[in-house]
Structures are given as structure tokens and as C-alpha cells.
User: Fold these one by one.
Assistant:
Number 1:
Amino acid sequence: MIKARKLTKRFGTVEALLNLNCNIPQGCIYGLVGANGAGKSTFLRLCNGIYKPDEGHISINGGEVFDNPVVKDHCVFVPDELYFLPQSNLNRMALLYESMYPRFSTERFADLCAAFKLDRTRQLNTFSKGMRRQAATILALSAMTDYVFFDETFDGLDPVMRNLVRGMLYDDVLERGCTAVITSHSLRELEDTCDQLALLYQGGIVFESDVQNLKTSLFKVQVAFAKDYDRSQFTNMEILSFTKQGSVANMIIRGDSSMAKVVIAAQNPLILEILPLTLEEVFLYEMEALGYSFEAPVLKGGERA
Amino acid sequence: MKPYLESIRRLSRLGLILLALSFVASVVVSIQYCTALYHDNVPSITKMFSPLIAFIYAGGVVLAMDGFSFLNKRSDSDFYHSLPVSRKRLFWAITLAALTWIAATVLTNVLLTVMVFTLTKTPFVQLYALVAVPFFTIATMMVFSACAIAMSLTGTTITGLGLTILVFGLFRFVQFAVARGIVANTPIISWLDLPWYLTPVTNIATGQIAQLLRPMLRHTLYAPINIFYSAVITGAELFLARVLFEKRPSELAEHGAKSAALQTVFACAAVIPVVILFASGVMTQQGFSIPIVVGIAVGIYIIYQLVALRSAKKMMLSLPWLLVPLALGVAGYFGTTSAAKSLQSFVPNTQDVAYVQLNGANRGSEYVSYQQYLVSKVQFTETDVCQYAVETLRDNVATIRTSGYLNYTYDDQSSYMLSTQPVTFVLKDGRKFSRVLMFLNQNTLLSYCQQNSAFNEAIQTLPPPSSTRYLQGGDLYDKAYLENSAILATYYEELPQTDYPANDFYRIFDPYMNYMVDEEQNYGNISTAGYVGMMRYWDSYTIRLGMPKSSAAWMAYTNNHSKNEHLDIMQQMIRKSATLTSDMDYFNISMMVYNVPMSDGTKQTMSFYLDRSPNDPAAELKDQMQPLMNEFAEILLRSKPTTNPNDFCVFTAWGGRVHNDDGTFIGGDIIARQYASSGNSFVSGGSVYFVSNGNVLYGGISGGISAYNPSFRSFTPEDQARVIEILQQWKSKQDEYNFTMYGGTPIEGPSIGEKYTAAPTPTPAG
Amino acid sequence: MFQIDRFGRTPIYEQIIDQTQRLIASGILKEGDQLPSVRALSQELSVNPNTLQKAYSELERRGLCVSAPGNGRFVTAEAFRIVGEGTKERLEELKKIAEELCMAGMPMEQVFHAVNDAYGKEIES
């Protein structure tokens, strides 16, 4: 379990993370999404003992991470900017990983390299960007750690590769109870892979939920009634958004969709449609409810009715 | 263990390159040294292992920068800090891996050098190899540790290098500048007399640089105590580096320093060398140089801060801190001059002195005699010696105070007696200090020293015969070595039977005495070089009549090497030299005559000289000497070589280029016959002459014959009497020539006198 | 066995549950049949195993399947009946809708057409 309590990190005058709290349970694939500069990479680096928290705690399996090899033994990091030893190839990097990670598996490494058809003797700086990402992922997964951290690793991978890497990850989660934390710019990327999602905004986690719950807990209802009506007609439901044009109203409702259907149907609408939302829409509406509006280009707190 | 092995692997690229480069350098340098034509001395550590001196700095910096290179890039730094290895362990893995490469390189190079020396049979001090390994390893680690500290404090390569220089050298630079100021301000304190806290050589890495500027420091640099002290310092620095490494935030990568405050500290540190240079007196401390120094300091500070802080406003805000190093400069200036004065003016009371030591006048050179080395170990507790030293110190200090320097009058006689000697005073309370004193009378000092039995023994002690490696400039494999060692053996046997010290420096010297008289007549000298333990010596022994067996041996050796004197050629040339035609022709002759009987009953060595050339303004005078020369040549043809040092004998060197009237070169046929087969060649044993295909050729303007390897020749009693007469006349003509040409007056003394018969030839030692 | 539309709006978890129910209802999955393991399914569909686990847990909660540790997951005896109950409810709903349409004046042929279409589509797919 990864636990962050009031985690704060500053760089000079910039507050990258402020009083961040979260729990990431074991065996979960946790997605962290946020705009550039929101603090995703900072958070991952704190989880891996690269940075020391200015305030607060970040612990894994009960132990503080920073400069603690006992805890870090269980963690491996695939950063956004990859690092390889100069003029090295996969074999050389495997030597490095093997010397640092006690449970590094050379068999798994060999299998993965074969599966991805990567030449282990070729210099890594001749690989394409995508292949380098694969290489780094292979090395990380061969370390057989309980916690794996991917910083924007999936962004920019082609769908085939993404599937392959996802497959490797699923195996680890199933076989060894591995926990993965993945960051990305895009919800779309994470939606398929993760089972937990969190939104990082201005140094804190403002929204966190199970992915499936997200998709089912919020839905759009399109209704029309013969007679005149307004929002107050649906007081017994949690309505996040209500827009009406003519006699057709679109509502975003949080709750159980079938229940909602029955309740509204009882009012004999002319039109009644329940539509699921994309994850992005879910996030947008949830954020609005929390008071943030996402008007490009600058994110700022907004007011809503 | 694994991180250590991984670090060795990671450093292997540069480690191997350094190893290979130093390997090649060592091979080239040592082969070059060993195959050089002429050696007369056993080499110092600096000479033997000079490539390793470069390695100290190159290896230390390169391995540290490479080992810690990841600290300067975000992605690299993040990666290493994410690994499950504690920072402490990571640091030590890198450090020990670097140490492994360094030790391997040093060891390889030392072994290689030793091998080259051994294979070429070039003498060297074995113990030097044993000292060199820890010395160079630790020195390189010192540089490494300074760089490690710097890398942990900054995040870019440039600032890393800059800070390395500061950490490595700032303190020692200040110390060196202060020391230099003191040495410059005190004529009686030299670099080897500084108190331990100002000595540049205790830090062997910076000491190596100091030694390049002040070579006399070389002799104290390699002392084991310095190596030990440096090892302790290196350990402390590595410990500090480790602590800094642990505390270093990963986000420091690609930034100059953690905070603006730290940058300001670095900027001030960068300015300090400039002001200290001024304070120590390296730059002239006059009015106009002060604004220049301040200007340079301000310039450096501003530029550094602009680059580091990247903001003109921040730079301006930090300017007041510049006053700190400037104040240090002022303090340094006053501090140094007052420290120098107070150091210099310290004069103890004689009764407080436990003993003094005489360190030897040329202790800083490569040529120190074995006797000087032994004398430097003697502790003179004798009151006379101590008192004389104290009085001299007091007098020197007073003279400096009044005149600003050691202003002692130099007249002909007393200048000979002045002697500059380094002295160490050890007081009864244990304190110790050294000064370079100018003694008014060397003889007085020596006579006091002779009260000490250890001294008397020391000055007559010869180095163990087995320790000799060079004899007369030739090594053990030189063919003359065996012959020379016969002379040396005789000398070794004879010296204890006399009162002579082995080195003339320790003789009581009489300025009024003519040293070419009786037993003082000297026939030659023999030089040896070698080493005992770590101590290299270079001795030179005078062979004089007072040691007849050695002199006889010397004469025998000389005569053996003198074949084909061609005295007949000499005679022809002498005769013809009266009527030289060609402008390039010339002839000269010089004789050392031993045991010339004088009117006061002594025998003396005298020298005679005559040269002839066309267009000589003194031709008339020389014409008068011509018959003397002719007769002398005739008698010389009848003379026989002698090995009796008590004999009246002559050692004649001559040379010239003289043509017959028919244009043939006198001596040309002999030369052509003897040496034509060798083509263009110099041949010793009688001639310096270019020959090509049997034709006479001159090498340069002075190309001619010169006979410089004569034998000692003695005469029959009748001939001897006649020669003495000839010499009497020759001398008066020579004096006349000197007076006419140069206005010189002859030295007063006895005149050439009675006939003299020699004592029987002593037998040289077997 | 399952077709996942990951670009649609229905959550994968719901799709799994729906498709399982339909397979049971249509008799393709019978009592005692083994459901594919989470692992195999995860690899085949490239779906988060936790999501699949959740879907299966929900199916178990509804009584449609039961897991024998070490052996796998199997369709229960009551599965068909439970699904059928759900199906029965749907038939009632269809009746009600037909009533509404009738009251609104829609001709019966149009309703038959719609039912035909639906069945035809199912038969075709």
C-alpha cells in the first residue's frame, strides 16, 4: 500500500505538491491524470525516493521511502525522460539492473526481449523512441518488484505496443499482486488500463475513484415533457447539471441509472433517454461540481449555480 | 558488492583510457630516460614517475566527474536516486571503484617503470617504487575527494570544475601565498624553514604543484609523514563528500547551487585568490596596484554572480558580500608582513638551546654528498657551536633590520669566509625552528664543529662501496668503471689514514694559502653517485698528493688511457707555429707542472701557457719564447710516463691547425691513416678532426687537432734541471706578457728554485 | 466468448455482465459450464484484470456463477432461472410499451415490424 499524508514539495518558490493525501491499495493499477505541471512527475519521484518531502509523509508498505533501500527494493521507476548508460545496449543495462535489484529475473528479461523482438546487443541510442520506451519497460518489469511506476510511459506508444505492455502489466498484477501507478495527460490512455483513477490539480488530488464506478455513477438523461417543467421537478436526485432548450432538457445525474429511469418514467415523459458518459465528460462535470472550470488555456476555480 | 562491481564497470571506459595513456607515457618517458647517453646521478621520484604526476590531476578529476556525472543531469540523477541502494552505499561504491582504477593505474605504471629501468640496467632507488605507490594513489584520491565534494554541492559541469579547484586548492593557495610572502619578506627564512603549518608539502597533491614552482621542496615532498597526513585529510574529505552526497537534493541537477546564498559564498571564494596574491606580495604592493587588484576582484565577482544568479538585480544585492574577501585581503597583507617580522625577530638565548643541526648548504639540490647527509643528522650540543649560531642569528636579524637585507661587506679575503648555511635550532622546551644564516667565518664554525666526535666521524665517512651506481659519470656497465673502481678502492683504503674530510667543504680553508703546494697539489678528482636506503648521494673526492697511493692510481689510469700522444707532431707544429701563414692556423700549448721546486723549499704545481697565431700583436714577445718552446718539445720527446706523484712531472695539453709551406696539413697523414676508415668521425685519444675519404676536412672554424689526453711525464735528472731552467725563463716572459696585455701583476711568492729528486713511487692498492 | 467495445460508452464491466447474462439466457452457457479465467480473458481482451475480477464478483453476487478455488468459475444451476426472471420482467415492460403505443394510435403492424426487425437482427448476428 502506498500512503501519502499531507505530502508537500517545493522547488524554490514553486509549490509542486501541497498537502497531498492518497492511498493506493495493493494490486491496483492506479492512474494519475493532470495537466502539465500539475505535479504528477513530482509525485512519482517522491514515491521512488528521488525527492525528499518538504513536509508530510510518503510511505510504501509502512516504510518511509526516501533513502530507504528496504522499501525501494520493491519499487521500480520508468521515467518520462528515459536514462540509459551511454553507448549501452539492453544487455549492459540488464547488468546494471541486476546489480541493483535483488530479484531481477534474467529469464523474464530474455523472454520479454524475444516477445518484443528487440535486439539485445544493439545500442539503445539507435532505437526509436517507442522502442526505447519498450526497452525501459522490459527492464523495469524484469526487476520483479511489487510496485511499478510509469511516468507517461504509455503516451505516444502505438496501440499494438500499448496492448503488449498492458498485457505484461496485467500478468504481474495477477501473478504477483503487483501495484502499478501510471501517469498520463490523457484520460483516454488510462481508461482502458487502470482500475483506479485520480485527478491531480494544483498540487493536490482533487478527485479519486474506481474507474468502473466513474462510468456508471454519472449518466446523462435526456427528457421532454408535454407540460412545462423545470429542475425542481427532480429534487430527489443529485443533479450536477441541468440545461433546457425548449421542452427538451439534458441532465447530468449522479446515482443509479436504472433507479433514476424508473423514477423519471413514473412522471410520464414524452422522451426519456439514459446515455452513458465518456470518462472525460465525467471528469469535467465532477470538476465543475467541485468548483473548477476547465476553460482553456488556464485552469481556474469557477462558480457554478 | 554488486553496486561496487557495477561502478567499476561503469568507470571502465575512462579508467581504461587513462590506464592506457599513462601506460604509454610511462613507457616512452622511462625508455627515453634510460637510453639517454649520459647519466651521472640516480634519478629522483619526480624524474622517475613524471607521467604519474600528470595522472594525479587528470585521473582524480576525470574519474570523479565521470563517476558522479549523473548528478548533473535531471534524468540521470533521478534514475540513480530511484535505485534501491542507499545513497551512502552508492557513494562508497563509486569511490571505491575509482580507488580501484587509480590504484591499478598507479601500480601498473610503477611496475612498468621499474621493469624498464631493470631491463635497461639503469640504476634507481628501489624504495622509491615502494613510496611511489601510496604517494600517487593517495594524491590522486585527494583530487578525487575534492571533486566529489564539489559535485555534491553543485549541479553543472562548469560549476563542478570551478568548485573542485576551490575545494582542492583555495586553502593551500592562501597558505602558499602567505608562505611566499613570509619567505619574500625574510631573507633568513627559506621554503624549507617554514613552520609546519605553512609548509606546502604536507598536502601531497597541492605540494606537487608547489614543487613545480619551488623545486627545492621536492626533497621533503615524498616523506612518509606527508603521505600519512594527506591520507588522513583525504579520508576526512571523503567522509564530508559522502555526507553532502546523502543530503544532496536530486533536483539540484542542472543548477549552479542550492540557493543564492551559496552562490554568493562561491563567488567570494573565487575572489579570494586574487586578493591573497596581492596581500602576499606576488604583485607589487604599491599605490597603483591596489585599484587594479580591487578592479579585478570586483570584475570576477560580478561576472560569476551574473552567470550564477542570472539576474543583474540579484547580483547587485549580493555586492556588499564582496567586502568580506577584500577585508581578508587587507588582513592578509598586514598579517603576512607582521607575521614575517615577528617570526624573523625571534632569537633565543644560548642557554635555552638544546642543540643545533646543520642541514647542509645545498640541501635543495639533486647533488648532496653523503657526508653532508650524515652531518645533517648530527646534534651539536656543544656550547661553542650553539652560541656561535645564536650570535650569528642575532647579528643577521639586526643587519636585516638596519639594511633590509644581509648586507655584509665583501672584501677579497673575508668574502671567502662568509658561509650561508641552513641551521635548525632545537630548544630545551622542545620547540624547533630553522633559519638560513650567513656565518661570518666558515672556519670558526668548522673548528667549533670539530669538538663533536660524531661530526668528525661523519665527514670522513664514505658511502658503502656496494651502494655506488655511477663512477665518474659512468655506470656499472661502462668499460671504464672497473678501472675507476681501482682508484676508488685505493681512496677508500687511504682516506682513514689521513686527516682529510671526504668533502672539501668541511676543510678549514686558509685564504692566504696557496693550494697548489706540497701535499695540497691535486691530480684529479673522482665522483660517485648512488643511494643508501632512500637517500641519494653524489660525492666528489679530490685526489691530492697527501694521498699518494690514490694519486699514483690516478696517474696510472690516466697514462693507460693516453696512447699515441704524437709528440713528434707536436714538435713539428711548435716549430712551424713561429711562421704561420694561413689566417685560420693557430697553435696552443698548456702545461701543468707538478712538484716544481721553489726557493722556499716547497714543491708547487704551476701552469704554463703559450699560444701562437698569425697577426698576433704580441708576436715579438712570443718570438722570444719560441726557442724555449722548441727546446721543451725536444726534451718532452725524450721524457717517459710516470706514476710517481712525488715526481717532477708534466701534464701537457696542446692543439692547433698548422700547415707546412707546401700546404700539407701537419699531422694529416697520421689522422688519415688512423681514422679514415671511420668516415666522418670524432676520435678521442689525441684528435678532434673530421675526416672524409682520406681528405682532411675541418669541422667548423676551429677544426684542428687537439691532444687532451696526455700522460704524466717525467725526465732524467739532466733534462729535469734543464726544464726547470726553461720554466724559469718562461715564467718571466709569461709575466711580461700578462702585464703588457692585461696589466696584471704576478702574485708574490717564492721563485722557481733548486733541483729536486723524487721520493720512490708508492705502490697503489691492489 | 466476449466482444468488448472499448470505444463505446458502456463500461467494460457492464458489457461483461450483460454479455454473460445473454449467453446464459440464450442457452449458450449452461449449468456447469466453465467461464474463462480472469487471466486468459485479461490477455485476450486486453482488459484490466481487476475490472474483470469485479465483473465476475458481481456475477457471483447475482448467483449466476460460483468459483471453486483452484478449479475455476462455473455457471450455477439457478443461472438460467435468475436470468429468465430478469427476462420475464423485460417482457412485462414490452407489454406495457405496446399498450402505450396502442393508446397512442400506432398500428399493430408497425409494432410487429419492430419486433421482427429486432429478432431478425439477432438471428443474423
Number 2:
Amino acid sequence: MTTVSAKKPNWFSSLAHPGNFLAWSRYLVWPLALLTVAAFAVGLWFAFWNSPDDYQMGDMVRVMYVHVPNAWLSQFVYAVMALSAFGTLVWRHPLADVANKAAAPLGATFTALALFTGSLWGRPTWGTYWEWDGRMTSTLVLLLIYLGIIALWRAFDDQLRAGRIIAIVTLVGALNIPVIKFSVDWWNTLHQPASVFTANGPRMPLPLLIPLLTMMLAFTLLFSLLQVLRMRTEILRRRADSLSRQAALQGVAS
Amino acid sequence: MTAFWTLIARELRLAFRAGGEALVLVLFFIMVGAIVPFAIGPDRPQLMRLAPGIVWIAAFLAMLLGLDRMFRADEDDGALMLMRHAVLPLEAIVAAKLIAHWLVTAVPVLLALPILALLLSMEGPQLAMTALGMLVGTPALVGLGGIGAAVTVGLRRGGLVAPILILPLAIPVIIFGVGMADPMSGRGATLFLIALSLVVAVLSPFAAALALRASGE
């Protein structure tokens, strides 16, 4: 390993070096924050004042503008985690561990919010907070997987060793998610033929689509901002940890 | 190959000589199943309808209970350290341990199934399909459990984390396993369960061995 790393690192690995990451990501925080606020301002303005009511759902259709972005992020964040798990296992990259650890609570939160807004939306339109519908069930299972990964992160003392092991769990989960989704759909159609959910949404009209896409962009920007902040915090925390360990060691030696 | 069989024999010998844990698991399996009628009432038709689900949950809980013994003792006495450096690849060692674990936990539970079936008034084709489903599906449960046990082997207080990790991943196994006993589901459930079991059985030794190596570094 050491002989390989002796050659000059390419631009990507120098970008991803934790120290360099701290240096350049500092200039990312403010622009990202401003972009996020701007996107939310535009998106919310569209969502509240400049989008039509649905002819069936009326004003309730506006829940979509917070529900769909959260549902999209619940899966997008897992994809980010699976990618970083791959990075951990293949390149043993320290930043990949940090990305996985930083993303897990964010993904869990977005998934919980997707379930929450979905049930608030479901009550007036479907008449129930919860239905064992295929999509809702697999989102719930996804939330359970997120929570399991967070629990595993918290159970380890040694974060470096934890990174590799959790990467394996993340990838096993990523392989399993399609299977779970398929099995839940199979199970649901066996038990209760879909009635309410067959409404295979007609192609979305543009006045609804534009606010939705803006809100999805805003939420994705919010995730990127929080992810960068959390990664910076985690790197600094590890650095502080190792510094205090060194200080303790010197205290013992002297 | 002799090393492989020797390892299985060792695991079996350890399991039978050290306190008869297999018997405790069987006892647990029957008790969980037997406690359900107290909770939902002794209505026989209702019990009969729910029986496959109850049996699967009981078997699943019994399997979770036995997870910790898969690698824990070997980690504590250092045998796992030797296995990491053995001539036999760690993947093969893990596979041997998974097979032995299946023999020690799943087979006794399967043998005890008729007792629970009697208590839950399960009969005829329903019982046959549930037994067949458990025979086919338990390798998947053991494989997933092996990954969970390997991942948490380095944790002092990891006993609770492994079940949390395994539970969501095992949902498809439960769905297809219970689905098999449903006369409406046709052959689909059986084929999916077999496919799932085969895939998990092939992949889990590699994932578990990877985790064991990572936790031994």
C-alpha cells in the first residue's frame, strides 16, 4: 500500500484527503446555504401561491411539494451511502467512512419525514393515516434499515474499524432493498388487491411539475449542505479525539 | 475438504456437549408459539388461519436468540484469530460454521414443528407447506443471521444490534415463507423463497468473512 501511495496522488484523491476536504469545503458552505435558501424561497412561493389546485384534492395537493422531495431523498441518500460504502471497501478511503456516517441520520430523517407527510396527506385523501401499501411498507422498512445502521455506528468505539464493517452492512442492505420492495409488492397484491392506489397518476401538468422540481432541487441542496456540514464536523471531531488521545499519552509519558 | 468436514463436526460436537443449547432453542420456539393463544384467544379457526405466521415468527425469534453463539465463543477464546490465518479460506470456514449452525438450530426447530402444529390446530397441506417452507427458508435466515453475527462480533455490547440489523432484511423470507402456506399464492412463493435462500446461502459466507476480517484488523 505504502509503495503505491508514494506516486503522486491524482487530483481526485487529493481533493478527498480529509485535510484538503476541510480546506476547500469551507468555501462551499456559504454558497450552498444561499442557494438552498433561494431555492426554497422560489419553491415555496410556487407551492403556496403560484400553483393550481388539484381538481380532486383541492389545496391538499400542496402536500406533494414537501412529501415527494422527502421520498426522493430517502432513496437518494441511501444511494449516496452505498456509493461511499463502496469507496470504503475498495479504496479504503477515510472520507468515505465519514460520508456514510454523516449521511445515515440525514437519510433516516428524510425517510421519517416522507412517512409523516405521507400519512398527513393520506388522511384527507385516502381516509387513513396508514395503509399497508407496497410503497409505504418498503419506505418503512428502509427507515428501519437506516436506524439499524445508525445503531451500529453508535455501538462501535473504534470508528475506523466501524467504517469497514458498516460499509458491508450498507451494501448488503442495498442488495436487499430491491428484493424487499418486490416481496412487499407481491405480498400486498396477494392480500388485498389495490383499489385506491391504482390511480396511476396521469401525466403531471406543467404548472404542478415546475414547483415540484424546484422543491426537489431545494431539498437536495439542503441535503448537500447538511452533508458537507456534518462531514466537516465529523472530521474535526475525529481530529479532536486523536489530539486528546495524544495529549493523554504525553501526560502519561512525562 | 477434510478440514471443512472436521470444522462442521467440531461445531456439532461443541453444540451437543456444551449445555444442549439446541434444546433450549426448541423450548423457546414452542413457548413463543404456545403463548400466542393466550394473547389472541383460543378460537381454533382463527388460530388455524394465523398458524403459519405464528410458527414463522417463533422460528425467527428462536434463530435471533441463537445468533450470538455463532462466532462469539470463538472470538473470546481466540479460535477465530487462528481461523483468520488458516490455510482454509475464511469464507469456507464461515460456510462450514453456517451449515453447522443450521443443523444445530433449524433442524431441531423443524423437528419440533409438529408439536406446535398440534397446539395451533394446523393440519394437512397447511402443515406440510409450512414445514417445507421452513426447510427451504431457514438457510436464508441463518445466512442473514451469520452476517449479523459477524458484523457485531467485535462489539462488547452488540448483542442487541444484530437482531435490529437482521430484522428488516429478513422480511422477504417471512413474506414468502408464510405465503407458501397460503393456498391462494400458487407456486410463486415457493420459487421465490428457494431463489432467495440460494442467493443468500451463496453470498452470506463472503459478506460474513469480509466482516470478520475487518473486525480482526
